[in-house]
Design brief:
This protein is mostly helical. The chain is built from 5 helices and no strands. The two termini are 24 Å apart.
Length: 107
């Protein structure tokens, strides 16, 4: 039951984050952009650092420090590799398309 709840929460958080990014790419109203930023923050908080660390501590009884460092190292490397890609999309197309691509990536 607990695992199913976590899976559902992570899925909903991911979809909320992704959809917020995608809709941000299509809006031109600053107020709507801010509201979508709130929804994006709520979605990201579902799979943020604390939740991931709790999941790691539940799965691994030994060497949790090693596993935690590997997980967050991987997220840092992914961010490092995606940053030039998003910069290229912004320069080549527009920030709106970059937001749509970020939303697709987040889902």
């Amino acid at each position: 039951m607990k695992e199913q709840f976590m899976r559902t929460a992570l899925l909903l958080g991911s979809v909320l984050t992704g959809m917020s990014f995608i809709v941000m790419g299509f809006t031109s109203n600053v107020l709507v952009f801010y509201i979508l930023g709130i929804f994006r923050g709520i979605g990201v908080s579902v799979f943020a650092v604390a939740v991931v660390t709790i999941g790691i501590n539940n799965w691994f009884k030994k060497k949790t420090g090693l596993v935690t460092s590997l997980v967050f190292c991987t997220s840092g490397i992914t961010g490092m590799m995606l940053s030039p890609l998003f910069t290229w999309i912004i320069e080549r197309y527009s920030w709106r398309r970059a937001y749509v691509f970020m939303g697709i990536t987040a889902c």
